[in-house]
Amino acid sequence: MPKILVVDDDSSIVEILQFILSKEGYTVCIARDGKQGLSMAKSERPDLIVLDVMMPEMDGFSVSGELFKDPVLRRTPVVILTAKGNMRGIFDMVPNVGAYVDKPFDPEHLAGIVRKLLATQAKAA
Asked: 54: number of CA atoms within 13 Å, CB side?
């Protein structure tokens, strides 16, 4: 069963993501800020990370950059989730970002992106 790490400081978004992803059959780990998310990514080794941009301690861009520096985590696909506009161009330059989803998001659309990224990752392994 694939493990997904959700890194977001918005409790309502975390609840929605946990519900959607658990319903899809994934194991879901939660981190409430970027620093905790990076630490959990290193200890949990998730199959995919859903990462908010604007968070306390460490923003999503910094987390994504640190993930890419790690030889194991750099292969972990990241879904960027944000309400902040004009970020797509910045994250298009980050190699481990597999998708970019604007808030508010359609739960089925997000679940489809996760399925696709995990299937692509499984084929590459």
From this structure: 10
